[in-house]
Amino acid sequence: MAAVTMVQAIAQALAEEMERDERVVVLGEDVGKRGGVFLATEGLLERFGPERVLDTPLAESAIIGAAVGMAAHGLRPVAEIQFADYVFPGIDQLFSQAAKLRYRSGGQFSAPMVVRMPSGGGVRGGHHHSQSPEAHFVHTAGLKVVVASTPSDAKGLLKAAIRDDDPVVFLEPKRLYRASREEVPDGDYVVPLGKAAIRREGDAITIIAYGTSMPEVLKAGDELAKVGIAAEIIDLRTLLPWDIDTVMRSVAKTGRVILVADAPRTAGVLGEIAATIAEELFDQLLAPPIRVAGFDTPYPYAQDKLYLPTVTRILNAAKQALDY
Amino acid sequence: MVHEPIIATSTASFEPFTAQPIALLNEEGEWTGHFPIDLSDAQLQQLYRDMLAMRLLDERFTVLLRTGKTSFTAPMAGHEAAQVAIAHAVRRGHDWLFPYYRDYGLALTLGVPLVEIFGQMLATQADPAKGRQMPCHPGSRPLNIFTAASTVASHVPPATGAAISMKLRRTGQVAVCTFGDGATSEGDWYAAVNFAAVQRAPAVFICENNRYAISVPLALQCATPTIAEKARAFGIPGYHVDGMDVLASYYVVREAVEYARAGNGPVLVDLVVYRYGPHSSADDDSRYRPREEVEYWRQRDPLLRFRRFLERHGLWSENWEQQLREAITQEQAEALEAAERAGDVPADWMFDDVYATPLWHLERQRALLRAELQ
Predict the structure, then answer these.
(1) Using an 8 Å Cβ cutoff, are B183 and B210 in contact?
(2) Which of B69, B56, B59, B65 is nearest to B124 (CA)?
C-alpha cells in the first residue's frame, strides 16, 4: 500500500464509505468537478455521479441544513464547508437543527451526518482562512467533535464519523493536509471516536494536544528526550467526547501536565480539560496544569507562524511545569 | 378522530403570480371557481369539522394558559382554512411536513392524536418529544411531521434536504414546509428555497402569511407586493392565495404538491391569512394593531365563509354545528385528561436523547442530579 497524505486519506475514506453504503452522499461547494478546493473529494463525482456528489449553491446554511433534512430522511450526508472560517452562516443549522433534532423530538428524529471542514492556521491565510473554532462546537450539546492529525487517523476517524448515529463536526488541520505521507492500514480501517492516541510514552510529564499543533508537540517531545525527560504525548483526536480515561491515567502517572492547541486560549477546550484534571487529580498534581494555546486575537496574517504554539513556547511551558 | 384522506380526482390549473389573491368562495360563500368541485358532501363537511376542531383547540390552549396548566401558546385562530387545507392536500403519512410553531391545527388535521398534543402543551409523559420543548412545537415520526423548532426559518433548509433525498431515492414523496411571513426575510429561507429550486427537488414552501411578524407589518418585512413574487427570483412558480378560503387553499396546495411530486421542482404558495390573537401569549397586540382592524378581519372569519357555502348546499345546520361542537369538546376534554394522567416528565429524562448512546460526561451529570434529588 502506497504512502498517502492526509487529504488523500480523506478522499479514500469518502470513496470507500460511498462504496460500502449507498446512503452516503457528499455535498458542498466545488466538491464535484473541482474535487474540492483541497481535493478531498477528488474522483467522487466521476465514480458516484451527481445525485450522490452534489455541487451546492454558495450558502453554508443550505449545505448544513440540507444535510440535516437528508439525514433525517434516511441518507448519511457528508457536508464539506470549504474553510472552518466559513461555517458561521451555517451555524444556526448546525446548532439549532443538527445538534438538537434528536433531543427536541424525544428521539423520534435524528441527524446522522458529518460536517467536514479544514481548520487551523499556518498557511498564511489571515483570520478568515486560519481559525480553529472547535470550542464553539464542543460547547453545543448534541454534536461530536473530531480533529485528526495523521493520514491514518483522518481516514479511520472519518469512517467512524460517517457511521456514527449523531452529527459529527470533523475538523481537518489544513496545514497537515500534505505535510507528511504515511502508509494507511489496509482493509476497512476504522478509528473509534472518543479514544485518544498515545504518540509517545513517558513518565515525567504529560503533554495533551491535538490537530494543527501536533508536529510542534512531537518535536518538543524529541527535545525533552534529548535532555533525559520522558514526556507522554497524548493526541486527543476526539474533543467531544474526550478520552478522560487516557488523560487521567497519564496525568496520575506523571503528576505534571501541559496542554497544547492552536485555538484561542480563553474558554477553550484545553481549559475544560485542565479544569477537569484539577478537580479530579488535585492531590496527585506536582504542578498546576499549564495551557499553551493560540492568542486571544483574531488570527493574524503577518505573524502567521508566531500565532501557533511554537516548539520554544511548548518547551518553556514544560520547563515551568517541571521546575514548579 | 382521523378521517379518510381526500383523493384528488381532477386538477384546476391556477395562474401563478396573480396581483389579487386566488379565491374560489366569495364572502357570501358562493363558489366562484371555473371548474366543478370534485369533493363529496362528506369531504366538504369534514373540512368544516376540522376547521372547527382547530378553532376549539386554540380556545382550549388559552384556557390551559389562564388556568396555569401551560406556560405558552401561539394563537392560530384565523389560520384554520390554510392549515386544514394543507393537511388535506398532502398524502398523510407519506409526504413529510416541516411545520413551524403556529401549526398545531395542521398537526391535528394530519392525525396527531389529541393526547399527544396536550401532552406536549403540558410537558407530560404523553408527549412523544418527552417534554423537551416549549408548548406549540408539533412533531410526529409516524406521521412524518418533522418536529418544529423555535428558530424562525431554520426548518426550511432541512425541508430542502429531505426533498433532495426523496428525489435521489425516488420515494414519490413531497416535502411540504410551512412558515410565517417573517421567515421569508431570513437568509436560511432564501438559501433553502434556492437550493431546492436548483435541484428541482419535490418541495412545496407555504407561507401562512398573517401580515405580522410579531408587531412588524408586511410592508416593513419586504418590498414586493406579495410573498408569492419572491418565487420569480428562484425560477419557480409562486401562488398568491386567499388563505381564509379553505377551498382555494386546498385546490392550489393540492396542485402545487402534485406538481412537485411529478418532478417539476418546488412551488411557493402564499396563503394570506389573518391572526386574530396576539403573536403569542407573551405578546400584547393592542400596541401595534387597531382593534378595528382585528374586528374587520373577524367579519371575514374563514369558518363563517365556509359555513355559508355549506349552508347554501344544505350541508350545514345549527343543529349539526351544535352536535359537532359537543363531540369535539368532549373529545378534547377526554384527551386533556389522559394527557394529565400520564404524569409529569421525570427529571432524569433531561439527559436522554442528547446522543444516540449516552456519553460519559452526561452520565456523570445525570448521577449528580440524581444524588441531589434523593
Answers:
(1) no
(2) B69
Whether chain B has a CB inside 8 Å of the CB on A62: the answer is yes
DSSP letter at A36 equals: -
Asked if B275 is an active-site residue, the reply is yes
Distance CA A92, CA B253 (A): 29
Q: What is the DSSP string of B305-343?
A: HHHHHHHHTT---HHHHHHHHHHHHHHHHHHHHHHHHT-
Burial B10-28 (b: 16+ CB within 10 A, else e): eebebebeeeebbbbbeee
pLDDT by residue, tens only, chain B of 374 residues: 444 545 544 456 899 999 999 999 999 999 999 899 999 999 999 999 999 999 999 999 999 999 999 999 999 999 999 999 999 999 999 999 999 999 999 999 999 999 999 999 999 999 999 999 999 999 999 999 999 999 999 999 999 999 999 999 999 999 999 999 999 999 999 999 999 999 999 999 999 999 999 999 999 999 999 999 999 999 999 999 999 999 999 999 999 999 999 999 999 999 999 999 999 999 999 999 999 999 999 999 999 999 999 999 999 999 999 999 999 999 999 999 999 999 999 999 999 999 999 999 999 999 999 999 99
- Which is it for strands A197-200 and B175-180: parallel, antiparallel or unpaired? unpaired
- Please report the ipTM that was assigned to this predicted complex: 0.96
Minimal-distance CA residue of chain B relative to A245? B360
The CA distance from B287 to B269, in Å, is 30
Whether the full predicted model's pTM is greater than 0.80, yes or no, is: yes
Contact list, B188 vs chain A (CB under 8 Å): 61-62, 65, 92-93
Residues of B in contact with A97 (CB under 8 A): 149, 151, 154-155, 157-158
CB within 8 Å: A66 and B195: yes
Residue A25 in contact with partner chain B when CB distance is under 8 A: yes
Nearest by CB to A108, which of B141, B151, B154? B141
> Who contacts A203 (Cβ-Cβ below 8 Å, separation ≥6)?
A230, A232, A253, A254
Report phi then psi at A230, rounded to 5. -90, 100
* A 223-242: CB under 8 A from B: 240-241
Query: What residue of A is the nearest CA neighbor of B140?
Result: A108
**CB under 8 Å, gap of 24 or more: what pairs does B357-365 form?**
B357/A165, B359/A194, B359/A240, B359/A241, B360/A241, B360/A244, B361/A241, B361/A244
Q: How far apart (Å, rounded) are the C-alpha atoms in residues B268 and B206?
A: 6
Give contacts of A144 with chain B, Cβ < 8 Å.
Answer: 355
**If you compute the radius of gyration of chain B from its CA atoms, what whole number of angstroms results?**
21
Q: Which of B137, B275, B289, B305 is catalytic?
A: B275
Spell out the domains of chain A, with CATH numbers in brackets.
Answer: 3-183 (3.40.50.970), 198-323 (3.40.50.920)
Q: Which amino acid is at A268?
A: G
Domain boundaries, chain B: 41-343, 347-374
**Closest Cα to residue B351, out of A138, A164, A141?**
A141
Return all residues near B245 (Cβ < 8 A) that are at least 6 apart.
B23, B24, B25, B81, B302, B305
Q: Work out the number of other CB atoms within 10 angstroms of the CB of residue A18.
A: 21
DSSP label at residue B140:
B
Q: Cell 437550493 identifies what position?
A: B195
Report the side by side order of strands in the sheet with B175-180.
B96-98, B175-180, B203-209, B267-272, B238-242
Domain B41-343: what homologous superfamily?
Thiamin diphosphate (ThDP)-binding fold, Pyr/PP domains (3.40.50.970)
